[in-house]
Design brief:
Order of helices and strands: HHHHEHHEEHEEEHHHEHEHEHEHHEHEHH
Shape: globular
CATH class of one domain: Mainly Alpha
Structural class: mainly alpha
Strand order of the largest sheet: 1-5
Number of strands: 12
Helix content: 40-55%
Radius of gyration: 29 Å
Largest sheet: 2 strands, parallel
CATH superfamily of one domain: Cytochrome c-like domain
Amino acid sequence: MMVHPRRAGALSPPRPLWLTVLAAVGFLGALAVALALGGRSDARANDGQADQASNLIATGKQVFRFDTFGDEHFWGDTLQINKALAGAQHGGVGPGVSPKTALAVGLKVDVDALPASVITSLKNGTANLDDPATTLALLKLNSVVGVKGVFDRSGTLTSVGITCAVCHSSVDNSLAPGIGHRLDGWANRDLNVGAIVNLAPAGRLKPVADMLHVDEATVRTVLNSWGPGKFDAELFLDGKAFRPDGKSAATLIPPAFGLAGVNLHTWTGWGSVTQWNAFVANLEMHGQGTYIDSRLDNAEQFPIAAENNLGHTRHAKDLITSKLPALAAYEEVLAAPTPPKGSFDPMAAARGKVLFAGKAGCATCHVQPLFTEPGFNLHPASDIGIDSFQADRTPTHEYRTAPLKGLWTHTKGGFYHDGRFPTLLDVVNHYDTFQHLGLTAREKQNLVEYLKSL
């Protein structure tokens, strides 16, 4: 039977060897080109993702430093802090606020926003730090950290707003006390928030008083009780201004650095970085956005919040929500700063590190390198040997294991959420007594030196 070579299933004559080699080389060449192009495509994709991440962080930095979220309507329109800052001679009321006074209540000045002429006048002492006009000039330069002034064409300060940086930034004092390069994420333990709010002209705190069902004089008394470095974020939720022992219910301003990898945030673990940013921007800074939190509907725990429907805050124009991703991205890359050389005893710190992970048991909760639990990081008050007052003002009813890196930057005001322990040694003594650790005086000091080294 005849078999036709072109018919289906027919056998083809063998190819010459040189044709087979050429085909193989061609295939491998094509594969190499494809892989090269694919590699370039992957590289471009990776570069694009890196660019997106960098852009997100850069945007977050601007939001953190300069975005008021539209809160001028509260600080300017309602409280009229702008008029108090300007003083009667500059279109406001009262004596005005001089740079000397502003620095005294903890406001900071960004030296990088100052022109050379101003820096020179500050260095040689010719700048008038007793004149409110100088404060207005600094606001026009956008150099007052965390405070933004709004001026009309005539130069009159018509409103004012605040940003995240007012509480969570400081300066390095490189030019003068309170004047230097920005230190983003640092807790401003010099900031007297209560004194600043109390600048509001007579009658302007009435909306706050009405909300709390007290008179304006009582509000001013509460504000004066806070002192430097403290703020009461729960006051507008539960109306509790003082602890059972009669002391202020305000808590210390925490740092906003070293947050990467940390689960819950704030002293009592209200939620994630984004949750707390949304909470503060809407309910504390009084910006214009959206905040949804049905936990605040609990009228027994949060009577003020429930009455005012704060857990369902919605403004017609949302100036906050779209900025939350960038803001969180920036805050989570702010690393805790390294302690300056000479600020602790290295040999004692090395001994303290061993104690921290061993006899003292600190690392049980303060797990290295996060120095908080990698996971659920809350504890009842009974675990740490203190009262539950502040924990019970929050939905969690517990306290967070605070990250410890960068402790050296915020020793002013004491330790724990309310500063009840004036020094690190007092903290160590508390745990030594509460947990029956049996630490010697030398071991305690070694632990302190280790904590200072973080």
